[in-house]
UniProtKB/TrEMBL annotation:
Name the record gives this protein: Uncharacterized protein
Length: 236
């Protein structure tokens, strides 16, 4: 479809499909005087030419394109790039495309990456205009408000499931609190979790001071000590 087309037929086909566009302004001097597509012997291809006297710049039909790029190589000419883009848009994986055309993986990767970047740029630009059901910017969240313990012996209940959760969801349009919608969720009952060690944190605790009385005693010497001891014993 793309590989065997001549250069002019390919450019016409891509322009008809809206993939290529005739530049409305010259990218070099910004003047609106861009001439028709003509064959250029010097560049060996079909180009547009700015007709402003001070500029006269030539522009490739795929120059300044968000996905295509200009390359003189045989495996990465416009025919191949268009074929790779076709594969990328119909959902063929990047690896398969590389094997299918037997071309350098870099050519395929470049087209696939450029397509992704172009899509992301488009979504970024259109993001503000995208609306869901008349709402513009919606926030949604859920919260657990409590839990209850189920009787383990209840019939029709999965064995070992012991905890039921009270869970609510909410939707609100950003900047319009009156649009808040609350709805009760029905989460599945779960097992009881094993008790953990609890939050681990370094706590500082204050202890009351303990005072001790200091004694200053003078003990007698060796023989004296024995004499004193005997005296005490005798008197007792
Ligand atoms: Zn120009």
């Amino acid at each position: 479809m793309f590989l065997n087309k001549g250069p002019l037929a390919l450019i016409k086909l891509l322009t008809k499909d809206g993939i290529l566009q005739k530049p409305t302004k010259c990218p070099h001097c910004a003047s609106a005087s861009v001439g028709p597509l003509k064959y250029c012997k010097q560049w060996n291809g079909y180009v547009y030419r700015c007709s402003k006297r001070a500029c006269h710049c030539r522009i490739w039909p795929h120059g300044f394109h968000p996905i295509f790029y200009h390359s003189k190589g045989k495996g990465s000419d416009l025919n191949m790039q268009a074929s790779v883009l076709f594969c990328a848009t119909v959902g063929i994986p990047q690896v398969s495309t590389h094997l299918l055309f037997d071309v350098d993986a870099k050519v395929v990767a470049r087209i696939y990456n450029n397509l992704d970047a172009a899509r992301a740029k488009f979504v970024h630009r259109q993001e503000k205009a995208i609306a869901y059901g008349g709402w513009c910017d919606v926030e949604a969240d859920e919260v657990d408000l409590g839990k209850g313990f189920l009787d383990d012996t209840t019939d029709g209940q999965k064995k070992g499931v012991t905890t039921a959760w009270e869970q609510w969801g909410a939707l609100v349009e950003r900047g319009r609190p009156e649009s808040l919608r609350l709805f009760r969720l029905n989460p599945a009952a779960t097992n009881t979790r094993a008790p953990g060690p609890g939050p681990i944190c370094k706590r500082v605790t204050w202890e009351k001071l303990h005072y001790t009385k200091v004694y200053d005693l003078k003990l007698p010497d060796g023989p004296l000590l024995v004499r004193e001891m005997l005296k005490t014993l005798m008197s007792a």
